[in-house]
Amino acid sequence: MNSLSFRTQQQGIRRTLWWLLLMLCGSVAFTVALVPLYDVFCELTGINGKGVNSAQVLQSTGIDQQRNVEVQMVTRTAAGMNWHFSATLSHKAVHPGEIHQMWFRMQNLGRTTGRARAVPSISPAEASNYFLKLECFCFNDQQLAAGEVLEVPVVFQIRSDLPEDLHRLTLAYTLYPQTGP
After folding, report:
1. pLDDT per position as a tens digit, 22-56
2. Residue 106 in contact with residue 175, Cβ under 8 Å?
3. Which domain holds residue 22?
4. What's the Cα-to-Cα distance from 117 to each of 16, 55, 147, rounded to whole Å?
5. How many domains does the chain have?
């Protein structure tokens, strides 16, 4: 093998390694930036499905007594999590503009104290801007000792200017384990 082809081969390997390193750094940077970029995208488009966290009650629009909206409650626990999580009611008919309270039950089935946080999602996505969570257990982590049972509320209001074609909303919570301080 002559030294010129060996040198050319080494330069090619070096160039390939630099490109791989650059792509790795770009992938890490993209991964770190993905969550904030997604939050900005969802805020701009209104499709986040998270609902509005609000301490203000909409009083100016009033209660729409002529209309019923069915709110379905769906609960899940993350894979491998040894907790039971359920809504005390699977659905409730509400008038837009009224304030309602629903209860959820958590139980740590494990042998050690655990901490979890519920992440909400509202569907259809266009309804998320009309669903106001006034008080929610999802705002904070929930810590339960082994075998402990906890009932927690969500207080919500559906804005009375909810589009007429929306008759059913689903409030889904997924319970995820929390670690660290």
Report:
1. 999 988 888 877 777 776 666 655 555 555 544 44
2. yes
3. 1-45
4. 44, 20, 17
5. 2
